[in-house]
Amino acid sequence: MFRAIWAWIQKFSSPKYFFDMSGKMIPWFAIAAALLGIYGLYLGLFVAPTDYQQGESYRIIYIHVPAAWMSMFIYVVMAISAAIGLIWQIRLADMIAAASAPIGASFTFIALVTGSLWGKPMWGTYWVWDARLTSELILLFLYFAYMALQSAIEDQRAADKASGLLLIVGVVNIPIIVYSVQWWNTLHQGTTISITKDAIDIHMLIPLLLLAVAFKLYYAAVVLVRARNEVLYRDRSRRWVREIIEKL
Amino acid sequence: MNGTEFHWSTFFAMGGYAVYVWPAYGLTAVVMLLNVIMPLRQRKHIIRRVKRAVRREKMSTR
Asked: Which pLDDT value is given to residue A193?
Protein backbone atom coordinates (compact mmCIF):
# COMPACT_ATOMS: atom_id res chain seq x y z
CA MET A 1 0.00 0.00 0.00
CA PHE A 2 2.62 2.49 1.10
CA ARG A 3 4.90 1.36 -1.66
CA ALA A 4 2.13 2.00 -4.19
CA ILE A 5 1.61 5.52 -2.85
CA TRP A 6 5.34 6.15 -2.89
CA ALA A 7 5.60 4.93 -6.48
CA TRP A 8 2.73 7.23 -7.42
CA ILE A 9 4.37 10.21 -5.73
CA GLN A 10 7.67 9.48 -7.43
CA LYS A 11 6.01 9.30 -10.83
CA PHE A 12 4.21 12.60 -10.40
CA SER A 13 7.17 14.39 -8.89
CA SER A 14 9.62 13.35 -11.59
CA PRO A 15 10.76 16.50 -13.41
CA LYS A 16 10.08 14.95 -16.80
CA TYR A 17 6.48 14.03 -15.98
CA PHE A 18 5.96 17.47 -14.43
CA PHE A 19 7.41 19.21 -17.48
CA ASP A 20 4.98 17.45 -19.85
CA MET A 21 1.91 17.86 -17.65
CA SER A 22 2.47 21.48 -16.67
CA GLY A 23 2.97 22.45 -20.30
CA LYS A 24 -0.60 21.38 -21.00
CA MET A 25 -2.02 23.09 -17.89
CA ILE A 26 -0.49 26.57 -18.27
CA PRO A 27 -2.79 27.88 -21.04
CA TRP A 28 -5.92 26.86 -19.12
CA PHE A 29 -4.80 28.57 -15.93
CA ALA A 30 -3.84 31.66 -17.92
CA ILE A 31 -7.17 31.88 -19.75
CA ALA A 32 -9.20 31.29 -16.59
CA ALA A 33 -7.16 33.92 -14.71
CA ALA A 34 -7.68 36.49 -17.47
CA LEU A 35 -11.44 35.90 -17.75
CA LEU A 36 -12.08 35.98 -13.99
CA GLY A 37 -9.75 38.95 -13.59
CA ILE A 38 -11.49 41.01 -16.27
CA TYR A 39 -14.95 40.16 -14.91
CA GLY A 40 -13.85 40.90 -11.35
CA LEU A 41 -12.36 44.26 -12.37
CA TYR A 42 -15.52 45.13 -14.28
CA LEU A 43 -17.71 44.40 -11.25
CA GLY A 44 -15.28 46.08 -8.85
CA LEU A 45 -14.69 49.27 -10.80
CA PHE A 46 -18.00 49.80 -12.61
CA VAL A 47 -20.77 47.96 -10.77
CA ALA A 48 -19.89 47.87 -7.06
CA PRO A 49 -21.37 50.76 -5.04
CA THR A 50 -19.33 53.56 -3.50
CA ASP A 51 -18.26 53.06 0.12
CA TYR A 52 -20.18 55.38 2.42
CA GLN A 53 -17.10 56.12 4.55
CA GLN A 54 -14.16 55.86 2.19
CA GLY A 55 -15.73 57.04 -1.06
CA GLU A 56 -14.13 55.71 -4.24
CA SER A 57 -10.72 55.24 -2.64
CA TYR A 58 -11.88 51.90 -1.22
CA ARG A 59 -11.68 50.42 -4.76
CA ILE A 60 -7.99 49.87 -4.11
CA ILE A 61 -8.99 46.92 -1.89
CA TYR A 62 -9.92 44.89 -4.99
CA ILE A 63 -6.22 44.51 -5.71
CA HIS A 64 -4.77 45.21 -2.27
CA VAL A 65 -6.57 42.44 -0.38
CA PRO A 66 -6.09 39.67 -3.02
CA ALA A 67 -2.40 40.68 -3.34
CA ALA A 68 -1.93 40.56 0.43
CA TRP A 69 -3.59 37.14 0.56
CA MET A 70 -1.30 35.93 -2.26
CA SER A 71 1.79 37.25 -0.48
CA MET A 72 1.02 34.93 2.46
CA PHE A 73 -0.40 32.05 0.42
CA ILE A 74 2.70 31.82 -1.79
CA TYR A 75 4.97 31.95 1.24
CA VAL A 76 3.12 29.01 2.82
CA VAL A 77 3.29 27.08 -0.47
CA MET A 78 7.05 27.69 -0.53
CA ALA A 79 7.52 26.62 3.09
CA ILE A 80 5.52 23.41 2.55
CA SER A 81 7.48 22.71 -0.66
CA ALA A 82 10.74 23.28 1.19
CA ALA A 83 9.65 20.87 3.95
CA ILE A 84 8.74 18.22 1.36
CA GLY A 85 12.08 18.78 -0.35
CA LEU A 86 13.97 18.45 2.93
CA ILE A 87 12.11 15.42 4.29
CA TRP A 88 11.50 13.30 1.17
CA GLN A 89 14.30 14.63 -1.03
CA ILE A 90 11.86 15.48 -3.80
CA ARG A 91 13.76 17.86 -6.08
CA LEU A 92 10.63 19.09 -7.82
CA ALA A 93 9.38 20.55 -4.50
CA ASP A 94 12.54 22.66 -4.19
CA MET A 95 12.07 23.83 -7.77
CA ILE A 96 8.47 24.89 -7.02
CA ALA A 97 9.74 26.88 -4.02
CA ALA A 98 12.43 28.58 -6.07
CA ALA A 99 9.97 29.34 -8.88
CA SER A 100 7.47 30.88 -6.44
CA ALA A 101 9.83 33.34 -4.75
CA PRO A 102 9.82 36.20 -7.30
CA ILE A 103 6.03 35.97 -7.66
CA GLY A 104 5.51 36.02 -3.90
CA ALA A 105 7.86 38.96 -3.52
CA SER A 106 5.96 40.79 -6.28
CA PHE A 107 2.61 40.31 -4.58
CA THR A 108 4.05 41.43 -1.25
CA PHE A 109 5.39 44.55 -2.95
CA ILE A 110 1.99 45.18 -4.58
CA ALA A 111 0.22 44.72 -1.22
CA LEU A 112 2.57 47.20 0.48
CA VAL A 113 2.40 49.88 -2.22
CA THR A 114 -1.35 49.68 -2.85
CA GLY A 115 -1.93 49.73 0.91
CA SER A 116 0.26 52.77 1.18
CA LEU A 117 -1.66 54.51 -1.63
CA TRP A 118 -4.87 53.80 0.22
CA GLY A 119 -3.41 54.87 3.56
CA LYS A 120 -2.44 58.34 2.40
CA PRO A 121 -6.00 59.67 1.83
CA MET A 122 -7.56 57.55 4.61
CA TRP A 123 -4.99 57.74 7.41
CA GLY A 124 -3.14 60.83 6.24
CA THR A 125 0.14 58.98 5.88
CA TYR A 126 1.78 56.60 3.41
CA TRP A 127 3.42 54.54 6.10
CA VAL A 128 3.26 53.82 9.82
CA TRP A 129 5.30 51.30 11.78
CA ASP A 130 2.28 49.43 13.05
CA ALA A 131 2.22 45.65 13.51
CA ARG A 132 0.40 44.77 10.29
CA LEU A 133 2.55 46.91 8.00
CA THR A 134 5.81 45.99 9.70
CA SER A 135 5.15 42.23 9.62
CA GLU A 136 4.19 42.47 5.93
CA LEU A 137 7.45 44.32 5.26
CA ILE A 138 9.32 41.54 7.10
CA LEU A 139 7.61 39.09 4.73
CA LEU A 140 9.11 40.99 1.78
CA PHE A 141 12.55 40.76 3.40
CA LEU A 142 12.04 37.01 3.94
CA TYR A 143 11.44 36.61 0.20
CA PHE A 144 14.57 38.64 -0.54
CA ALA A 145 16.61 36.61 1.96
CA TYR A 146 15.44 33.36 0.37
CA MET A 147 16.38 34.55 -3.12
CA ALA A 148 19.74 35.87 -1.91
CA LEU A 149 20.55 32.52 -0.28
CA GLN A 150 19.50 30.64 -3.42
CA SER A 151 21.85 32.60 -5.61
CA ALA A 152 24.69 32.90 -3.10
CA ILE A 153 25.26 29.17 -2.57
CA GLU A 154 26.90 27.53 -5.56
CA ASP A 155 25.86 23.91 -4.84
CA GLN A 156 22.15 23.55 -5.63
CA ARG A 157 21.46 20.87 -2.98
CA ALA A 158 23.06 22.97 -0.27
CA ALA A 159 21.28 26.10 -1.49
CA ASP A 160 17.91 24.33 -1.34
CA LYS A 161 18.62 23.05 2.17
CA ALA A 162 19.75 26.36 3.63
CA SER A 163 17.08 28.48 1.96
CA GLY A 164 14.42 25.86 2.73
CA LEU A 165 15.26 26.03 6.43
CA LEU A 166 14.94 29.80 6.28
CA LEU A 167 11.46 29.44 4.74
CA ILE A 168 10.32 27.00 7.43
CA VAL A 169 11.58 29.18 10.29
CA GLY A 170 10.06 32.27 8.67
CA VAL A 171 6.57 30.74 8.74
CA VAL A 172 6.15 32.18 12.27
CA ASN A 173 5.71 35.55 10.58
CA ILE A 174 2.50 34.43 8.81
CA PRO A 175 0.24 34.14 11.90
CA ILE A 176 1.76 37.40 13.12
CA ILE A 177 0.57 39.12 9.92
CA VAL A 178 -2.87 37.51 10.10
CA TYR A 179 -3.55 38.21 13.78
CA SER A 180 -1.61 41.48 14.07
CA VAL A 181 -4.80 43.52 13.77
CA GLN A 182 -6.27 41.65 16.75
CA TRP A 183 -3.20 41.29 18.95
CA TRP A 184 -2.08 44.87 18.73
CA ASN A 185 -3.88 48.15 18.49
CA THR A 186 -3.05 48.85 14.87
CA LEU A 187 -3.95 51.65 12.54
CA HIS A 188 -4.70 49.03 9.90
CA GLN A 189 -8.36 48.12 9.81
CA GLY A 190 -9.62 44.68 10.84
CA THR A 191 -10.33 41.79 8.51
CA THR A 192 -12.34 42.66 5.41
CA ILE A 193 -13.89 39.22 5.15
CA SER A 194 -15.49 37.71 8.22
CA ILE A 195 -17.92 34.81 8.61
CA THR A 196 -19.27 35.92 11.95
CA LYS A 197 -20.00 39.56 11.35
CA ASP A 198 -21.50 40.97 8.21
CA ALA A 199 -18.81 43.50 7.43
CA ILE A 200 -18.90 43.88 3.66
CA ASP A 201 -21.66 44.38 1.11
CA ILE A 202 -22.28 41.41 -1.18
CA HIS A 203 -21.75 43.59 -4.29
CA MET A 204 -18.32 44.50 -2.97
CA LEU A 205 -17.54 40.97 -1.80
CA ILE A 206 -18.14 39.21 -5.13
CA PRO A 207 -15.57 41.18 -7.20
CA LEU A 208 -13.09 40.85 -4.33
CA LEU A 209 -13.43 37.07 -4.30
CA LEU A 210 -13.34 36.89 -8.12
CA LEU A 211 -10.05 38.79 -8.16
CA ALA A 212 -8.68 36.62 -5.34
CA VAL A 213 -9.36 33.50 -7.42
CA ALA A 214 -7.98 35.21 -10.56
CA PHE A 215 -4.74 36.02 -8.70
CA LYS A 216 -4.45 32.39 -7.57
CA LEU A 217 -4.90 31.15 -11.15
CA TYR A 218 -2.40 33.73 -12.38
CA TYR A 219 0.09 32.44 -9.82
CA ALA A 220 -0.58 28.86 -10.96
CA ALA A 221 0.19 29.76 -14.58
CA VAL A 222 3.28 31.85 -13.85
CA VAL A 223 4.77 29.49 -11.26
CA LEU A 224 4.47 26.60 -13.72
CA VAL A 225 6.30 28.57 -16.41
CA ARG A 226 9.04 29.40 -13.89
CA ALA A 227 9.20 25.85 -12.51
CA ARG A 228 9.62 24.49 -16.05
CA ASN A 229 12.53 26.89 -16.48
CA GLU A 230 14.00 25.49 -13.25
CA VAL A 231 13.64 21.95 -14.62
CA LEU A 232 15.31 22.86 -17.92
CA TYR A 233 18.13 24.65 -16.17
CA ARG A 234 18.82 22.29 -13.27
CA ASP A 235 18.54 19.15 -15.42
CA ARG A 236 20.27 20.68 -18.43
CA SER A 237 22.85 17.89 -18.63
CA ARG A 238 20.22 15.12 -18.70
CA ARG A 239 19.42 13.50 -21.98
CA TRP A 240 15.65 13.99 -21.92
CA VAL A 241 16.07 17.74 -21.36
CA ARG A 242 18.54 17.98 -24.24
CA GLU A 243 16.17 16.07 -26.51
CA ILE A 244 13.34 18.48 -25.63
CA ILE A 245 15.52 21.55 -26.07
CA GLU A 246 16.70 20.39 -29.50
CA LYS A 247 13.08 20.54 -30.63
CA LEU A 248 12.41 24.00 -29.19
CA MET B 1 -21.69 55.95 -10.02
CA ASN B 2 -24.85 55.00 -8.15
CA GLY B 3 -27.72 54.66 -10.58
CA THR B 4 -26.93 58.00 -12.17
CA GLU B 5 -25.82 58.33 -15.77
CA PHE B 6 -22.37 56.91 -16.51
CA HIS B 7 -19.60 59.28 -17.58
CA TRP B 8 -16.03 58.26 -18.27
CA SER B 9 -14.79 61.52 -16.77
CA THR B 10 -16.47 60.82 -13.42
CA PHE B 11 -15.21 57.25 -13.62
CA PHE B 12 -11.60 58.36 -14.07
CA ALA B 13 -11.96 61.01 -11.38
CA MET B 14 -12.68 58.28 -8.80
CA GLY B 15 -14.47 60.73 -6.56
CA GLY B 16 -11.30 62.81 -6.18
CA TYR B 17 -9.13 59.81 -5.32
CA ALA B 18 -7.79 59.27 -8.87
CA VAL B 19 -4.20 60.06 -7.84
CA TYR B 20 -4.31 57.13 -5.40
CA VAL B 21 -6.54 54.62 -7.17
CA TRP B 22 -4.97 54.68 -10.66
CA PRO B 23 -1.30 54.48 -9.59
CA ALA B 24 -2.29 51.49 -7.43
CA TYR B 25 -3.93 49.74 -10.39
CA GLY B 26 -1.20 50.82 -12.80
CA LEU B 27 1.62 49.54 -10.63
CA THR B 28 -0.17 46.24 -10.08
CA ALA B 29 -0.65 45.84 -13.84
CA VAL B 30 3.03 46.60 -14.55
CA VAL B 31 4.36 44.22 -11.89
CA MET B 32 2.02 41.41 -12.97
CA LEU B 33 2.92 41.93 -16.63
CA LEU B 34 6.65 41.86 -15.84
CA ASN B 35 6.07 38.56 -14.02
CA VAL B 36 4.76 37.12 -17.27
CA ILE B 37 7.41 38.59 -19.58
CA MET B 38 10.46 37.80 -17.44
CA PRO B 39 10.05 34.01 -17.15
CA LEU B 40 9.28 33.75 -20.88
CA ARG B 41 12.50 35.62 -21.68
CA GLN B 42 14.37 33.49 -19.14
CA ARG B 43 13.05 30.39 -20.92
CA LYS B 44 14.47 31.55 -24.27
CA HIS B 45 17.76 32.36 -22.59
CA ILE B 46 18.05 28.91 -21.00
CA ILE B 47 17.19 27.16 -24.28
CA ARG B 48 19.81 29.18 -26.15
CA ARG B 49 22.43 28.48 -23.47
CA VAL B 50 21.84 24.72 -23.41
CA LYS B 51 21.87 24.51 -27.21
CA ARG B 52 25.21 26.31 -27.30
CA ALA B 53 26.63 23.99 -24.64
CA VAL B 54 25.47 20.90 -26.56
CA ARG B 55 27.06 22.20 -29.76
CA ARG B 56 30.33 22.88 -27.97
CA GLU B 57 30.37 19.38 -26.49
CA LYS B 58 29.77 17.80 -29.90
CA MET B 59 32.68 19.81 -31.33
CA SER B 60 35.05 18.65 -28.63
CA THR B 61 34.11 14.96 -28.79
CA ARG B 62 34.43 14.82 -32.56
From this structure: 66
**CA geometry: angle A150, A153, A157, nearest 5 deg:** 80
- Please report the pLDDT score of residue B60 as a whole number: 84
- Segments of chain A scoring below 70 in pLDDT: 192-199
* Among the partner residues B16, B25, B50, nearest to A236 by beta-carbon distance: B50
Of A49, A57, A228, the CB nearest to B20: A57
Find chain B residues with C-beta within 8 A of A49's C-beta: 1-2
According to the model, what pLDDT value does residue A233 have? 95
CB distance B54–A246 less than 8 Å? yes
For residues A216 and A3, the answer to whether their CB atoms sit within 8 Å is no
Q: Report the pLDDT value the prediction gives residue B1, as an integer from 0 to 100.
A: 46
Q: Please tell me the pTM assigned to this model.
A: 0.93
| Alpha carbons A189 and A177: distance in angstroms, whole number | 13
Distance CA A204, CA A246 (A): 50
Tell the burial category of A70 from Cβ atoms under 10 Å away from its Cβ (0-12, 13-18, 19+). Answer: buried
pLDDT of residue A195: 56
Q: Does B59 touch chain A (CB under 8 A)?
A: no
